[in-house]
Every structure is written in C-alpha cells, then in structure tokens.
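Researcher: Let's run the pair from yesterday's discussion. Sequence first, then tokens, for each.
Model: Starting with the first of the pair.
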Amino acid sequence: MDEVLLRRAQRGDPDAFEQLMTPLEKMVWRICWHYTGEREAASDCGQDTMVRIWKNLGNYRGDCAFETWVYRVAANCCIDFLRKKKRDRSESIEPLKEQGFDPPDPKADTEEQAVREDEHARLRECIARLPEEQQEALVMTQLEGVSYEAAAARLGVSEGTVKSRVNRAKVKLKEWLSEQGELSPGDDVQQNEKENRKGGNRP
C-alpha cells in the first residue's frame, strides 16, 4: 500500500481515496456477497462499506494490514444488515400472526429451494453471532476461498491460529444449527472445506 496515498486520503482527498480503494473493490464485493447471499443486498452493503471507510479512514492507525481493516469494516456492515433484516422480518410478521394470518405453503416446485434458502439464511445469521476473529477466519477460508496460508498473512497470525479459529467457529456453528434442527454447518461451508483440504483454494 502507498503510504503517501493513504495520508492524502485520510486528509480528505477523494482522488487519493479512489486510487486507494479501487484495488480492493472486488474483495469488498465478495465479502458482502458471501455474508448476504443476495446481489442487491451485497451491492448495498458494499456501498455502505465504502462510505464507512471514507468517514472513518482517519481512525486507521496501521495496527493491522489496511486490507484486513477494510475486511473488518465490510464484515461489520454485513452483520449490521443481517441483524436489521432479521429484526425487521420479525417485526413485520408478528402483527399478522396475531391476527390469525397463516403464510401459505410454498408450491411443490419451489419448496426445496425455499427450504435451502432458509437454511442458508440461518447459517449466515449464526456466522454473524461468532466472535470477530472467528468470523474473519471462517468467511475467508470457507466462503471466500482464501487459503489458510494467505489468510494467515492477511490477518497477521500463524496458519495454525487460522485453522484453530476456523475449527472453533465450525464447532459453534454446528452446535447452534443443531439446536435449530440443522445438523451440519451448511453445504457452502462443507464444500469449501473440501477444496481447502485439496489445496484448491487460491490466495
């Protein structure tokens, strides 16, 4: 990262900010997509991430890699979105239920898709409950497809620490999802774990 460019952006130079963030835009989009699973939501969270970074860039003191700091801002934006979505959904359906409204069952040809979408939504909500360091390690390696080695370099910790955080996160996810009737951490996490074991993930 260009330190001069960073200092200019922190002083409010929009051109410097654009040059600083352009190489990270794809990473931000991937993070938002993996957290939300929706194109429109990912786009909104991505825009929110850029606004937050612009407003809080002066708070970055170099305690971690700039890329890691951006990653955390994006993850926090997505977590806030998921929490608000869950709260809004609960608030919108409860008054209807109190009035005796019973949502119709999905059609036969869409039932499997509806169940799968619900499972993925629950998985993402559970990920949002994990400690920040476990969220980062899990999303990077299991959803974003970053290798353990590259994740360790990005987070500034050892590869063993990354693996430990991922394992603790998966144990907690399995526990929470089992309580909800979902016995596994989800197909998307399992598939990326298989690829990671094969060494197929890219930095």
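Model: Moving on to the second of the pair.
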Amino acid sequence: MNETRTLAAWAAGLKLPVVPDNVKEHARRFILDNFGCQIAGATLSWSQAYYNVMRRTRSGTHSTVAYFGDKLSPDDAAFINSAFNHANETDDTHLKSPTHPGGIAVPAALAMAEYAQADGARLLAAVVAAYEIQIRIAWACSPFLIYRGHHPPVGVGPFGAAVAGAMLLDFDAGKTLNALAIAGSHSAGLIEYTKTGGSVKRIHSAIPAAAGVRAALFAEAGITGPQSILEGEKGFCKVFAGDYDLNRLTDGLGSHYHLLDNALKPYSCCHLIHAAFDALDNVRDREPLAAEQVRQITVYTNSEPILSHIGSIIEPGDILGAQFSLPFSMAMRLHHGGRGVRGGNGFWDYPHVNVKDPRLVATARKVKCAVAKDAEWASVDKGTGIEIETTDGRRIREIVAYSKGLPENPMSADEVREKFRSLVDPILPPGRPQQIIEAVDNIEKIKNIDDLARLLVVPPAKRIKAVA
C-alpha cells in the first residue's frame, strides 16, 4: 500500500539532471507535437465555441491562450489549450493503457509554468512527471478502465495535471500528495460517444487539465484530501477499474519511464485504426489499388472491445463519428490515394470531409471488421491485418504488427517535424514554425517561459475562419 504517497514523493524529488537523455528527447518531441495540435486545433468550430464561452465568462492575467493570445487564469488557460490540443484526435496516445497523456500534461504544465514564472528546465521536468503519473495509473487499471466504459484521459488526467502544477509550484512531498488526493475527486469520463456520438469528447482532456491545475492551486492554499486516493478501498483503482494491478503504479519508478512507450499519431483519428492505414499503404506501395477495384476489405483486430470501439460506426453522422469509424476512415484513405501523414486522414482532412458523400459511404460499407481467430494480435499494443478482395478476383493480405508512431515503429525526429509543419504551416507566419521547433529543441535554456508561450499566438491577420 501507500502507492499514492510513493508517487507523490517521487514527483516532488524529481529534478531534470537525473532524467535520462532519451526521456528528455522524447518529452521534447511530445511537447512540439502537442504545440502543433493546439495551434491547429484552435481553428475548429467546436474549439472556438468552447473558447467563446471561456472568454465571456472567465478572467485572469497569468497564462496564455494559444492561437488567440488572451491571458486567463492558469486553470482556464489549461482548459482551453487542452481543448484545442485534443480537438481533432491528433494528440499522442499511450496505447497499451490506453490514454492520451500529452493533451493534458503539456497545456497544464505550460499554464502553470507561466503562473509560477518557471523556466524551461522546470517545465520539461513537470511534463515528464505528468506523463509518467498518468500512464502509470492508466496502466495499473488497463484494460478494465476502458472496458467498463470510462475514458482513461478524463479519469487519470487530473492526477498528471496536478503533479505538473505541484512541481512548478515547488511543492514538497506532502503538498504534492494533497494535490494528487484532491485531483482524485475530479476523475470522470464516459465513452458512450463511441456508440451514439456527440461533441463533448472534444473536451475529454480539457476537463482533467483544468481539474488538475485547480487541485494543485487548492493544495497550495492548504486544502487536503485522502492520502490513499489511488489504492484505497474507495479509491480510484477499485471504484473505476474494479480489476487492477497496484504494482504497476510504482514498479521501476525512477528507472523505467513509461513515457518511452508513448506514441505519436500521424493520423487524426482513433489510434486503434492506424495500423489498417499502414497496411493499406504497404499494399499500394506494391501495386495500384483504387477504391473502385475493391469488392471487400476485412480488417482483423485483436479483441471484441476494440472491435466495438472502432467498428460500430459504418455511416457516421458527424466528424467525430468518422474519426471513430474504421470503415469510413479507410474509405477516406482509399479515395484520397496518398500515404503517410498526407494520406487523407490528417488534421485538415476530417474537418472538410462530407460524411454523407455517397462514394465514401458506399466504400465504407465494403469494409468489414473481425476479431482474428488465430490470436495473431493478442494485445492492445499490437497491430492488425487486412485482407482485400478485388473486383478482378485478387486476394491481397497484409499484416502490420505495429502502426507508425508506436515505440516499436517510431516516427523519426524529422517525421515529427513534418507532422508539426503539416499542422501549423497553413496558419503561422513564415519562419514561425522553425522558431518553435528551435525553442523546443532548446527548452532547457529558456529563462522566461513567456517567450515560448508568445510563439504559439497567431497574429490576427493570419487567423482563419473557423473550419468544420
């Protein structure tokens, strides 16, 4: 027992010099990727709806809103930047948990770094800790958290954001423990949107980001909470997951960083769909294949719950439905004809797709999903396979064990920058993307975090009309 206390003590004592170089390098890539998601995500109509509510009803002067440049209180800035970050299913994923740590860790840490007037080195350390805490809690409850209908980022995210705030406010272990304890009372999130849609999922990282920041601010003010919030009889793991492994919370803490298992998303849809895209790309690298040549595609996945998560929707009613529909997303890729980051399932593709396009709907109906009976893909961190039957009688089979972006098939530094540029080049002034890349590459040397935050603001003349 005492797992919550152990995690709090570790976070309170974490200093950047003890963090391995490869962990810091991964964290920098994740920060860059999430900055790109924030800047591009602010252009979406649902993001701007949330932004307009916050602008009308909130105030503050501490922390910067990406894209627009307003100043809000740190919890409100964390909320809106996180909403931008997660706005279009482009932010990173820890697939084996599964959760989306970056869309919570990065906005919360940046907002609190501005509030605390911290430097770049402290920001980077806080991001590392926020990732680690979220992933460990989600992993301890995996796969039962999501199987019971909880969306892991909303459940575990408050803890990560609280730890980021605690580190940037320089809490000791006791105050950090209270920040975690308070964060637990904010845990929430249901995945009914995968069945019947709705746009509230767009703030499933914003809710925990703001909650965790508030938890840290409340702990700073002396509010306390239950110190066994994770492992207790009425604690998070038992109440939310039911079945869990508390050893995963602390095993290898300080030596094994689960952040290294985190994945970047080259495509703007549910990560469980990505391996099918890569398999299709591989097929079309070998031989031409147009949508009109396809009689049927069977996509083999690894479990009934995953099949339910991405295979339930054939004809989506909205963009979010399209992003959680394997059949429709595969139809988009087939008709686009491209590959990789620019293969038809990117950030700018989904907001402009017509979900009622008869060609796409007809092709989506040809895509079937099934559980592989030979257990070829037995765990959630493995890939998938496709079998294509063509109109001229060919049968083409392709297996992708790990989709692009997973740690077993990682995006290179250049590929991460390519994705970042694909997100921001349409809206940032010339030269600004490179400035942000260089700032993140040298984040430990930044003394005034406001200089970094200002780079994420788009000049009014470059702002575009809300898309989607």
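Researcher: Give me one sentence on the second I can quote.
Model: The longest helix spans residues 21-41.
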